[in-house]
Amino acid sequence: MSSTTTAHTISTTPNAGGVTPLQGASPHHLVTLLLDGALRHLEAATVELSAGDTASLAKATAIVGGLQNSLDLERGGYLADNLLELYDYMLRRLDAAARQRDEAPVREVAALLDTIREAWDAIAPEVA
Fold first, then answer.
1. pLDDT over 70 for what percent of the chain?
2. CB neighbour burial string for 80-98, b if at least 16 within 10 angstroms, e if fewer
3. Fold assignment, 38-127
């Protein structure tokens, strides 16, 4: 996984005005948090799988599914279509990792997500 990935902790504690940090976050920032969370859980899954634990893998799978479900296929054009297919591939690989208790597909998906994360960072000034 790339050293450019930054870990974020999501706080759901309301501030003095009763607003949680996520309520004011841009869609770009929310996707960044999801990508970071998936990468963090995939990293943990590579260690946990050898012990037969799939909790982190299940969390990463749920996040990838959420990213896939959040795609706007009408407005996103070919990019959204390609991401839909890529997320589908990732979900199949994570399923294989869970069934086979194999960390190789987990590392493959982490590398793909890291590439997406880097590209996502690169467009931040354009969508902010």
1. 80
2. eeebbebbeebeebbeebb
3. Four Helix Bundle (Hemerythrin (Met), subunit A) (1.20.120)
